Amino acid sequence: MQALLLRSNSEEETIDLGVEFAERLRVGDVVALYGDLGAGKTEFIKGICAYFQVEGLVTSPTFTIINQYNGVTTDGTSVKIYHVDLYRIETAEELAGVGFDDMVFSHDAIKLIEWSEKAEHLLPTTHYTVRIMADDENDSYRTIEITAPPTDIQGHVS
Question: What is the DSSP secondary-structure string of 52-82?
Fold first, then answer.
């Protein structure tokens, strides 16, 4: 599966790329985000939430682990969005304790997961992968690599 490579020169551009990416998301989708601390994962998620018209402040749920936002699709349908930050999670027991397994397999929401490497063994086999990498020479420059899950012949995620 070929990855889509995008470039961002600022937080605003990263948010805009999140908005563009969100157009392809459907209820039930999982987006696993990877990147170092401060890479721009939350900014990308802010863009996704902006696309779905989430009202209020979108922040990384570093201490609460999971935030739930209510959004709206382009056709006016309500959509639930889970924003998960696994930075502070250390064990499988902690993952279970926050209800990660139930949340990640819920079919009625879009799930956006920062620090996904801490729960790779629990991610569904079909999910989007977003890797955000900072440039060593220019701190504001980012490469964003997006890998889509396999699709069926009509273009639906399988």
Answer: TT--S-----TTTSEEEEEEE-TTS-EEEEE
